[in-house]
């Protein structure tokens, strides 16, 4: 159109109406195009002229979508398919989808999107098409889309006839299991099968994933989805844990993170806890370590509020402080409050041993020496028979933690001594080597003193010889040592030998009967009372029963009574 300028003109429509308008005139077009505002009849006539042209080209949204679904341009078809998802009514949307033949398109992307849309808008009568495509379509992305579509349909039709829905559901689960168990199938298709199974029946999905994880050379995608699916099950088993645990050392950080998150589903399993501890303390990835720490915290809180039965009545476990309060205090900087909270935990025997261990063990590295030392003592008392949840796993974990502190020369001597004392309270034979090493090598006499006492608490006959050797090294067989530290060491060794009942120590112990220290003579009397009877021991005890010190005489008399 060639524009020649604006002009003002009047159009006479009838004798009564004359309308004025400013228009743009074209030489090639006889009709007048309105440029600005028009009024009255002229506007009406112009609109009628234009609308007549529009009406010839206009079509309903349904017809427009139908045309676009048949377009050769891929993007036009895909956009039309997306619009079908929100097209109402759904019956007409389905009709358009089927008539357009996009489900049979030669274009993979179109076919892929079409099956996705079928799942979104389809009804249960369409599910057979999805079943067929999920197994027989030549392209793996289309098969995966069909698998996803199966779950979409059930999500949309949950309120449908329950009986019919169950029949279709069983068939869908069976079909998806076949796909998942096909090791030759593409990983994307198997992944989609897991997701759809999980949506339909999560217990069946977990069962299938247990089998899946037993396959060799699985992709990272399948491992992650299988581990997650197992963790979502309400009925986790030892078998499922056995297939998940090996992946805790998988090279992929994301897989290890998934495992760390999943293991909280086995809160009472020692292997699961041990694996979480390793992931928390040893994994090179901070993300994995943080996830393991979070899982352990979840287990911890769950166990803290565990229910026990007393006289067949459920009684919730409680302490004077709420779990969250204790956590906040123990993670804080107030030394006094920390120590009070620790004492409360040690006293409350209804708090499970594992919970106590998890709450206290981090404090072995606390900034305050007093807090560290008290933490060692509390861990030692974790093995009390009255403590609920006491088991070999928790005791071993506590022993390992305390042995690590005892062997760390950078720790304060008071903390090392407390760690040695805690090991004695635990009375676990696995601590003997660490105690024997510290007894021989530690520079602090207080640490060596604690080691000697704790070795006696272990009551291992094999430790008698190492105690006697240590006594020799410490100068404990001197007639009257002036050094008060040696007096303390003498008491520790004699008490330890008495706890064990070392008959081989009879002569060395009796040699100290003439000590000027009443405390030493008292320990000798008590020690001899735990040894096998002999004439020499009998005479020594009679001698001590006449001692001028009342405590010594009483100890000897008690030992003699054991012989009667």
Automatic annotation (TrEMBL):
PANTHER family: DEOXYHYPUSINE HYDROXYLASE, PBS LYASE HEAT-LIKE PROTEIN. This is PBS lyase HEAT-like repeat domain protein isoform 1. Coiled coil: none annotated. Keywords: Lyase. The keyword Lyase applies. The keyword Lyase applies. One of its GO terms (molecular function) is lyase activity. SUPFAM superfamilies: ARM repeat. Gene3D superfamilies: Leucine-rich Repeat Variant (1.25.10.10).
């Amino acid at each position: 159109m060639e524009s020649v300028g604006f002009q003002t003109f009047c159009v006479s429509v009838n004798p009564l109406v004359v309308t004025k308008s400013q228009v743009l005139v074209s030489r090639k077009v006889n009709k007048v195009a309105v440029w600005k505002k028009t009024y009255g009849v002229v506007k009406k006539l112009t609109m009628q002229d234009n609308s007549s042209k529009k009406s010839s080209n206009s079509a309903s949204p349904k017809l427009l979508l139908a045309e676009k679904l048949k377009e050769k341009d891929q993007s036009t078809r895909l956009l039309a398919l997306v619009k079908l998802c929100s097209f109402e009514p759904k019956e007409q949307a389905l009709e358009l989808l089927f008539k357009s033949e996009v489900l049979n398109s030669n274009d993979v992307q179109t076919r892929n999107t079409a099956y996705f849309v079928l799942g979104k808008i389809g009804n249960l009568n369409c599910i057979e098409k999805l079943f067929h495509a999920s197994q027989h379509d030549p392209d793996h992305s289309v098969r995966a889309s069909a698998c996803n579509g199966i779950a979409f349909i059930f999500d949309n039709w949950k309120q449908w006839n329950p009986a019919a829905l169950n029949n279709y559901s069983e068939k869908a689960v069976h079909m998806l299991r076949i796909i998942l168990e096909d090791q030759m199938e593409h990983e994307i298709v198997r992944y989609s099968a897991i997701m759809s199974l999980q949506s339909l029946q999560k217990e069946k999905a977990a069962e299938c994933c247990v089998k899946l994880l037993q396959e060799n050379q699985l992709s990272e995608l399948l491992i992650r989805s299988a581990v997650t699916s197992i963790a979502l099950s309400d009925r986790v088993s030892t078998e499922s844990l056995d297939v998940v645990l090996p992946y805790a050392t998988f090279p992929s950080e994301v897989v290890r993170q998934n495992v760390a998150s999943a293991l909280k589903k086995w809160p009472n399993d020692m292997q699961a806890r041990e694996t979480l501890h390793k992931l928390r303390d040893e994994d090179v990835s901070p993300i994995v370590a943080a996830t393991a720490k979070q899982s352990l915290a979840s287990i911890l809180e769950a166990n803290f509020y565990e229910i026990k039965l007393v006289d067949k009545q459920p009684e919730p476990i409680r302490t004077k402080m709420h779990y969250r309060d204790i956590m906040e205090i123990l993670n804080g900087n107030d030394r006094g409050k920390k120590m009070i909270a620790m004492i409360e935990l040690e006293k409350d025997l209804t708090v499970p041993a594992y919970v106590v261990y998890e709450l206290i063990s981090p404090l072995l590295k606390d900034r305050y020496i007093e807090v560290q030392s008290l933490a060692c003592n509390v861990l030692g008392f974790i093995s009390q028979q009255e403590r609920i949840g006491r088991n070999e796993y928790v005791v071993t974990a506590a022993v390992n933690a305390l042995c690590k502190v005892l062997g760390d020369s950078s720790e304060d001597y008071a903390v090392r001594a407390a760690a040695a004392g805690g090991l004695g309270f635990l009375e676990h034979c696995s601590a003997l080597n660490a105690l024997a090493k510290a007894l021989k090598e530690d520079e602090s006499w207080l640490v060596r003193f604690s080691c000697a006492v704790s070795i006696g608490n272990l009551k291992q006959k094999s430790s008698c010889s190492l105690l006697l050797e240590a006594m020799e090294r410490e100068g404990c067989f001197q007639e009257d040592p002036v050094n008060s530290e040696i007096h303390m060491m003498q008491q520790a060794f004699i008490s330890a030998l008495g706890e064990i009942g070392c008959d081989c120590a009879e002569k060395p112990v009796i040699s100290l009967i003439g000590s000027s220290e009443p405390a030493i003579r008292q320990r000798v009397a008590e020690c001899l009372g735990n040894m096998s009877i002999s004439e020499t021991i009998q005479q020594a005890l009679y001698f001590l029963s006449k001692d001028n010190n009342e405590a010594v005489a009483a100890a000897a008399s008690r030992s003699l009574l054991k012989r009667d």
